[in-house]
DNA sequence: TATGAATGAGTCTTCATTCAT
DNA sequence: AATGAATGAAGACTCATTCAT
């Protein structure tokens, strides 16, 4: 009844953890096989090769990340600050549902092994947030920095904070999240 | 009379560029040798092995980064905001003097190949900024977030911005720097 | 009431084609399964393993080749030249009834995977023709060359000609066959 | 002083023997390395990969074979039968100077791993003999068979005879060679 | 009986490292 | 001191074979 075979799922999550922890190159296929409790050859029944595996993993998570952000924003039309709140909430939701996934995305988004398709998926994510910022700048509520700088500040901070949480240098509380959200809003918004 | 032999320097800078661009695992010793215009065996006269090489490279640049930050702060006692300005300036100076070095530090700071010593060097860097933030919190000018969150926001943003610059997604101007500094100050400081 | 199951036949003929075309090692069991329109596991119901498969295939075709040659010769007692004609005809008949089989035999007759039994089957084939040549030498109509040399000339030529035909470098006509038969007879027979 | 490094030669001759004996697919790189008394990695200093190795081996020997045949023919203008004698002598010389090489060429000339260049080299060899046959047909001394059939008979026989010799089914004597030459001439020439 | 998902032994190939020159 | 040829351990990947269904 499962649409995705159970072994494929095991390979996927083992990969995610290992790639996030050690990086693409330092992760060996036998490692993945062992962690997924699967024979080494089995991986190749589901993925053409190691590169296919990272790329599928990357795209799936980037797309889901984008979904989380979009879905928060889609169903309402309050003020811009609320919009930001929903985006932030989407990011938080994603990280909660997919531990390590953000770290994986961060450390692999520049990899030479990424296909054009993977790069485009990431680009779409960036584009979405850019559009949101552009709108904010038009409304005069977002700082007059290049969009890429705004993205870098938002994502750079958020990812680093989450890496700290996942490495237990920081503990995940509502208070922390609220604080970080406010801090980032301050970083991005025009001071009144 | 040169303390550091010229070949060693060549190996060092070739390594930095390659590690920053491709990562530790994807960089081969022959690659380094070729870019440094040196025989492959020569590297081993100056470094015990590949791990020694990254670690020495990492420590040297982390230490220099710390120096840049410290030196800005050391010779004055103006207000706290000025202190932050000096730190930021130190960070900028470092990236200007050592192109790619910040990218290298960022992408390698979680590497499994880092020795305890390297980790401590990085820790010292973090510690220094933490101390600065703690002081600011005592003075009531810095947000009441965990120090590690503050660090994550400062470094995460800054490194991401610099990666964008080095990949030509953003062009380095004084205006940009001023803007980013203000943004980060807003992120870290208590709103009045 | 079929003595040989239909699936086994499918496996046999798929194997023959693939082995002839690509060789034993370059042919994979999944390939055979696919071409035979059979599950990979099914092959193992009929053959112990890949080596069994080639060996059975080899023996069956070598034996049938021998039969073709023998049957031509058996039922008559005309002159020696007629005997040669019947042998040649038998060889032609075999290649017509079993396309690719001669190519398969040729390219696999030295394989390390052949069992003693397979080698003996091939030996028996050779022996039969040797006997025929020995008789001819006794009668003074066949050249005084070592039997193995005569075999080499007859089989070597014939197989090469058939390979050319099967690869479309040569088209199969009665004229060609007559010409080749005459040529080979000239090669083997004592010139008057 | 050696133009070709000694290790490369060792790899070459070990390869030739193994490929001739077992075939391309059944020969492993470690096997070659061991027989050449060389580390496995060393092979890759001299040859890009296994396919490069066979192809270089193939081309070199095919070219040398052609040379042997051509050189015999080049420096004289006696009768056509003498020309054939020189070709045959060239073939014999080649097999003497390069044991196993002819077997290697024979069993690998249809390989899927051969590059276009290798195929062309083989084609050139065939072409040369074809031209010789065509000339003979014009003079009315060679049978009126398709050139490819003549080639198949000449090469098929010769290669098979040599395989027998190298497998000790036949012992190499002048008498044998003279006998085979006469036999093949009878196969190819128009009977008077 | 038939299947094909799963396995892991065995390939080719790369690359950190050594060492004779 | 400097080199780069040589090595072999280790990684990605294939495929004969098994076995639960």
TrEMBL record, chains A, B, C, D:
The keyword Cell cycle does not apply. Residues 5-65 form the HTH tetR-type domain. Residues 28-47 bind DNA. GO terms for molecular function: DNA-binding transcription factor activity; transcription cis-regulatory region binding. The keyword DNA-binding applies. Signal peptide: none annotated. Keywords: DNA-binding. This is AcrR family transcriptional regulator.
């Amino acid at each position: 009844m499962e649409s995705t075979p159970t072994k494929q799922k095991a390979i996927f999550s083992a990969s995610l953890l290992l790639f996030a922890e050690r990086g693409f190159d330092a992760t060996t296929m036998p490692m993945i096989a062992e962690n997924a409790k699967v024979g080494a050859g089995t991986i190749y029944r589901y993925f053409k090769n190691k590169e296919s595996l990272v790329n599928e993993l990357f795209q799936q998570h980037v797309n889901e990340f984008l979904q989380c952000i979009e879905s928060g924003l889609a169903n309402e039309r309050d003020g811009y600050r609320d919009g930001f709140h929903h985006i932030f909430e989407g990011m938080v939701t994603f990280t909660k549902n997919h531990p390590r996934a953000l770290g994986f995305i961060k450390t692999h988004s520049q990899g030479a092994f990424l296909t054009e398709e993977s790069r485009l998926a990431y680009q779409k994510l960036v584009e979405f947030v850019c559009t949101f910022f552009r709108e904010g700048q038009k409304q005069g509520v977002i700082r007059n920095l290049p969009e890429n700088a705004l993205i870098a500040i938002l994502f750079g901070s958020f990812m680093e904070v989450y890496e700290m949480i996942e490495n237990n240098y920081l503990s995940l509380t509502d208070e922390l999240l609220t604080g970080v959200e406010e801090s980032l809003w301050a970083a991005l918004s025009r001071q009144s």
